[in-house]
């Protein structure tokens, strides 16, 4: 798969530092020990793949497994296995697709919604403790800038996808 060309100009030092900080955040948030601690504190004994799928499902309408896979950027078989795990644990259920009765969508159960609420609350409490010395203005500014950055990343990705011959 060819990758799109990068801009010719070197990145500014500020953008380089942002990339480094994002890498550090990603590393910290994806560590196995952090996941194990979060799920233990929340009382939700699910693996990282199941938690990622739960989070995605909590933020969207019920979707077909293939749509969930595309949204998460993983193989459909990966989502199928994870959905089976979530069904067995009572966190998700398959429901008929109203647009095509032959297809099914995956929906959170009450147990799944409660689990994601506990995970988010536990994560927020940890973040609150880590940022307790920040002023409300600093926190508001950071939240605004994070949302702006994500929106710009999404717009840029959409632009790349719209370019002729663009691949992902």
Automatic annotation (TrEMBL):
It comes from the Bacteria. It holds the Pfam family MarR. GO terms for biological process: response to stress. InterPro entries: HTH_MarR-typ, MarR/SlyA-like, WH-like_DNA-bd_sf, WH_DNA-bd_sf. GO terms for molecular function: DNA-binding transcription factor activity. PANTHER family: MARR-FAMILY TRANSCRIPTIONAL REGULATOR, TRANSCRIPTIONAL REGULATOR, MARR FAMILY. This is MarR family transcriptional regulator.
């Amino acid at each position: 798969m060819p990758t799109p060309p990068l801009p010719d100009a070197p990145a500014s030092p500020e953008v380089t530092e942002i990339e480094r900080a994002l890498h550090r955040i990603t590393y910290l948030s994806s560590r196995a020990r952090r996941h194990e601690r979060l799920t233990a504190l929340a009382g939700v004994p699910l693996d990282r793949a199941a938690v990622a799928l739960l989070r995605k499902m909590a933020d969207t309408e019920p979707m077909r497994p293939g749509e969930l896979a595309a949204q998460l950027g993983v193989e459909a078989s990966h989502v199928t296995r994870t959905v089976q795990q979530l069904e067995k644990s009572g966190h998700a259920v398959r429901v008929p697709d109203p647009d095509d009765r032959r297809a099914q969508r995956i929906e959170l159960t009450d147990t799944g919604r409660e689990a994601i609420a506990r995970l988010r609350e536990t994560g927020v409490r940890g973040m609150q403790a880590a940022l307790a010395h920040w002023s409300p203005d600093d926190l508001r500014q950071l939240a605004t800038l994070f949302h702006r950055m994500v929106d710009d990343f999404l717009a840029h990705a959409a632009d790349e996808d719209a370019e002729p011959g663009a691949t992902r």
